[in-house]
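lol ok so funny story. i was supposed to be doing the assay writeup but got distracted and ended up predicting the structure for this chain instead. priorities right. anyway since i did it might as well share w the group, maybe its usefull for someone
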Amino acid sequence: MSETETTSQLSETDRFYLLYGKAMAAWAHIEHGLALWFSHCTGLGFKTAENLFFSSRAGFSSRSRLLLSALQTTKLDDVAREFISEARERADSYCGARNRLAHGVMHPNRSGDQLNWHIKELSQWEGKEGLDDQKILLITTNFEALSALLKHSFVIEARGEELTEFLRPVYTLPNKADSTLLSKKQLERLAQLPG
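and the output, tada:
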């Protein structure tokens, strides 16, 4: 049975939860990719680095600061340093969408006979705003793209190869996880890259 056949048998509510679960799993892959890079930058074995990276109870911002500290003392070449710095910044900016997903509540909006599910913060319950399936799909797509770049670049770096091919893709990821728009700074940097 294909995934489409399986998901078509789910209720609207369960399909929404499936989409939500994919977004949260994609975020977990971002954090795993950052942990790999933290291990590489610190020279610690992965298990030790992972335990340190995920030890903070303060959440993602503490993990991001740990990686930033490691980047300031590591011996990466300029391209690798630029890539991981930009990827870390992107993860920082995507964390807000992750928090809205993790701390929001599934809530219905009724449009005629149709029920449209949204992830909403409590302050949004009376309105039509919130993260609908299209926004969550866009967030998931951006989370997956960032996590793929983090993991693939780590493999290339571990082989001792240059990461030049990863600069353009990381700059083409929007700054906001629920957007497709690039900032002026990103567009300027993309124009400076070769190729």
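The mean pLDDT is 89. The two ends are 43 Å apart (CA to CA).
back to the writeup now i swear
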